[in-house]
Amino acid sequence: MEHIGNYLGTIILIIIGFLAIKKITSCLFKAVVGVILLAIAAYLLANTGLISSF
After folding, report:
1. Domain coordinates of the chain in residue numbers?
2. Dist. CA 36–CA 45, nearest whole Å
3. Percentage of the chain with pLDDT > 90?
């Protein structure tokens, strides 16, 4: 339970990213933004120690 703030922050990041992508019309741009957001989320999770596979 000590990492609940990190989990909530990650969930909020994913929701904001999803809403931002939903507003964009180009499919290729959606894919690029999605990959970037996933990379940022993985980086943040790895640096906080929630995942250790990276």
Report:
1. 4-48
2. 14
3. 0
